Structure formats: structure tokens, C-alpha cells
Amino acid sequence: MAGRIDQRLADLGITLPTPAAPIANYVPFVVTGNLVVISGQIPLVDGKVAFTGKVTEDITPEHAKEGARACFVNLLAQLKAATGDLDRVKRVVRLGGFIAAPGTFTGHAAVMNGASDLAVEVFGDAGRHARSTIGVPSLPADAAVEVEGLFEIA
Description:
The two termini are 20 Å apart. The chain has a single domain (4-153), classed as CATH 3.30.1330.40. The protein has helices at 4-11, 61-83, 108-123; strands spanning 29-32, 35-41, 44-45, 48-49, 89-100, 130-136, 145-153. The strands form two sheets. The chain has a five-stranded mixed beta sheet with strand order 1-2-7-5-6. Strands 3-4 form a two-stranded antiparallel ribbon. The chain is of the alpha+beta class and 154 residues long. This is RidA family protein. Residues 7-144 form the Endoribonuclease L-PSP/chorismate mutase-like domain.
């Protein structure tokens, strides 16, 4: 029987992918006490980076927002691997977002809402979180966005 969060994902039409393997010398997540730290996830869809380039130069902010949403789906896949059951999640504590964009771009927060909005859609009030969103000149694999997360679990 699917758990409450698994059912919510199904209702949203979201199927979690196989968690991505690290591309360098790090682990995908660390569980310490009642916290899970998930390493930054890029917008992989079907094993390929689906949202690439710099926002406003190669990709629209609206499309990059979809990329941030895809990053959060990948965070959820890692979180399920870390916990075994997403119903153990008590709180989305913090999300960190990295947006590849030129120095003149200032709409980072709106792009990152793709991840933040999905966190609330999936977890309700427990999905409301602190966050930071940072503009960067480039990201691994030419990803347009990357999102990392901190979660409290039971």
C-alpha cells in the first residue's frame, strides 16, 4: 500500500526516478540524527540534463522554473532512498538553489519557486522552508539550475 506522500505524488502525476549517482567525490545524502542533507540535484529527466544553459540567454525564466521543479523531484528520489519512506519526513527545513545566469539577471527567486512550490504541494505546511537562492556563472553538466535540501525526519 502506498504511503500518504507516495499517494500525493501519484495524484500530482509524479513518478520518482532512480536516484542519480554522484558525478564526483561526494555522497548523494547524509543522514545524521533526525536530519537528512541531500547533495545538490540537477534537472535530470530520464537520465539526461533537461534544462541547460544560462537563464535569459539560453533558457527562459519560466522554463528554468520547470527545471527547479525537476531538481526537487530528484531531491525526493534521493530522500526516499535515504529514508525508505517519504512519510518519515516531518519538515522540509531548507532548500538551496543555484541559478546559472548572467550578472544582470535578478529573477532568481521566481525560478527557485519551481522547487519551493512543489515542496509545499507535496508536504503541505511541512513543506514550507527557509531557503537561499544564488546566481552563478555555470553549473555542472551545463545545468540551468541545481537544488540542495535539508529535511527533518521521524
